[in-house]
Amino acid sequence: MTWSEALTQLQLALGAPEELAWLAEAIAYFIGAFVLVNLSLVLALILIWITRKVVSRIQDRIGPNRVGPFGLFQTVADALKLLSKEDITPANADKIAYALAPIFSVFPVLMTVAVITFAPNFVGVDLNIGVLYLVALGSIGIMAALMAGWSSNNKYALLAGFRVVAQLLSYEIPMVLAMLAPVLLVGTMRTQELANAQSLYIGPVNLGLGWFVFLLPGAFLIYFIAALAESEQTPFDLLEAESELIAGFHIEYSGMRFAMFFLAQFLNTFFLGAIAVMLFLGSWQGPFADQIPLLGPIYFLAKVFFMYVVVQWIRGTFPRVRIDQMMSFAWKVLVPLVLFLILAQMILMKLPWPANFGWVGYLLILAANLGAVAVVLRVLGKHIRTEEVRTKRAFEPKSLIGVMAPVSPAGD
Amino acid sequence: MPELPIPIPPLPTLHESVFMAIALLTVVGAFLVVAARNLFHNALGLALTFFGVAGVYFVAEAEFVGVAQVLVYVGAISTLITFAIMLTRGMMYGATSPLNRQAGTAAIIAATVFVVMAGLLGSLPWPVAEEPIVDGQIVIANLGVGFVTEFVVAFLLLAVLLLVALAGAIVLAQDRK
Fold first, then answer.
1. How far is A143 from chain B (nearest CA, A)?
2. Which of B2, B16, B120, B124 is least enclosed, having the fewest CB within 10 Å?
């Protein structure tokens, strides 16, 4: 807490009584939180611009290019437009819940920034339960969606609210369990210690490439897929289906309140990428990050923005899944897979290794990770294919069943 | 400095004022649970109370319990209760009265529970930590070790209970062909 100590010193130098030292600390924390939160809000403007540019390029368009250099200020103009729009509250809406829902959807996302490790000594609070804190925040957003869906007094909003809860709750389980893998490996939930653990020393030089994605590729893949679903991105954006349908649980919202749901979604995508970077992609670690401290935040932001662009790339190229496919993918593929992975890792870590057996142990964990993915996908794949045929039949119009030729068990 | 005729009571410290704000929030939430006329507002009040309790844990520097509170109660239990309310026909909209013919019995039970709890909590000698816990890491690690050594039977029994609940839910939701 060097920052608050400095403020305390300043206050003492100015002749303030010792009893008010807490005030300095409170102000220091307040300024820190204020700066971080407002930076994330500005970040959202850039994120929306990146999304538009990337998706446009994929679709062979130029994208926003009129307002400002490279259309950078297009989002600012849009935000101004949204601010000036009429704020409509449906006549029979539940006023309190209706007003609170957008706030509740943004605030857990902004709270995330507190434990993000931007650089070796730059983190809001190094909570000893950092990873668990991130998990807990993720569960608050579900309540916000439910509140928005219910309070709009619109049955479509309510149905979409149910669907959002089903999606978020289902994908939370594989995501949390995948986040457990690096935590188990290091034995800490402190985000800064997780970052430190991903160093790679060759002699005395830290190459900074001991990323857990090289050790736990299966866990990273599961985390990434589950995070896509958690942030409601393509191919799991059927709640919103921006390109074809009206929006889901926030259908009745207009103006800035509607924008707040979008803000939450964009920031959530970014911060879930940041969590992926902290847990699997070495946080601020990289070549020479120890020698040149300035490289730390650059590496970190570069990796997070890379993750964000990958997500937008997926958004521009993948088709959307159906809701039954989405649910059965979570429960029948991801959950068994991640349970198997964690179990294999735990057993390997608890085997009585002789001392100085590190490298072989790590290689075995990597092998177990890859093996588990291969075995589970092989076993489940066969089952899923037969299941697929069954659900396909269920979705056909009743009149056609029996008329159509039987679907071959090999699928499409 | 001249002596003041009446001593000013010391200002609450930052810690105390934060605690007071959170406690107030908790009590308001608890009041909403009982007094709000709309069942959905009751559920939201409950979520608020859970948040407040988590805040009290944070003030007491029990971050792990606080976060677990948010995760389990706000994230799971509140959502479950809201779902149950929403799926119950006729309960979602419209006002319900907090007073019905069971009000008298409920008041007696609540008062009894309050008296017993207050007496119990007031008379217990609470252990006070000599110094602030610097490294919460060790506490969590001990908790984890405790689960798989000393309290392994209780832990396993809870796991079996949850498994049975899960299996039961699947059986209930199964297609009946």
1. 6
2. B2
Nearest to A139 among B13, B76, B93 (CB): B76
Considering B49, B82, B99, which residue would you say is the last residue of a domain?
B99
Instruction: Indicate if B95 and B145 belong to the same structural domain.
Output: no
Asked if A128 and B135 come within 8 Å (Cβ–Cβ), the reply is yes
SS3 label, residue A201:
strand
Given a contact cutoff of 8 angstroms between Cβ atoms, the answer to whether A194 and A188 are in contact is yes
Do the Cβ atoms of A132 and B137 come within 8 Å?
no
Interface confidence, given as ipTM, is 0.79
- CB spacing of A136 vs B67 below 8 angstroms: yes
Same domain, A150 and A291: yes
Tell me the whole-structure pTM to 2 decimals.
Answer: 0.86
The whole domain housing A207 covers 87-321
Provide the shortest C-alpha distance from residue A336 to chain B (in Å): 15
Residue A248 CA to residue A161 CA, distance in Å, equals 7
Using the Cβ of A189 and the Cβ atoms of chain B, whether some distance falls under 8 Å is answered with: yes
Q: Is residue A238 part of a domain?
A: yes
Task: Write out chain A residues lying below 8 Å of B141, CB-based.
Answer: 187
Q: Which helix (H) or strand (E) element contains residue A205?
A: strand A205-206
Per-residue pLDDT of chain A (412 residues; tens, 9 = 90+): 455 566 666 666 666 666 666 677 778 788 888 988 899 888 998 999 999 999 999 999 988 888 888 888 988 898 899 889 888 888 888 888 899 999 999 989 999 988 888 888 777 777 888 898 998 888 888 888 888 888 888 888 888 888 888 888 899 999 999 999 999 888 888 888 888 888 888 777 777 788 899 889 999 999 999 999 998 887 888 777 766 666 678 888 988 888 898 899 999 999 999 999 999 998 888 888 878 888 888 999 999 999 999 999 998 898 888 888 888 889 888 998 999 999 988 888 888 777 656 678 788 888 888 988 888 888 877 877 777 666 666 666 554 555 555 555 554 4
Into how many domains does chain A fold? 2
Q: Is the minimum CB–CB distance between A55 and chain B shorter than 8 Å?
A: no
Residue B131: CB atoms within 10 Å: 5
A305 min Cα distance to partner chain B (Å): 28
Distance CA A262, CA A47 (A): 11
Integer angstrom CA distances of residue B145 from A1, B136, B151: 31, 14, 9
Number of Cβ within a 10 Å radius of residue A63: 17
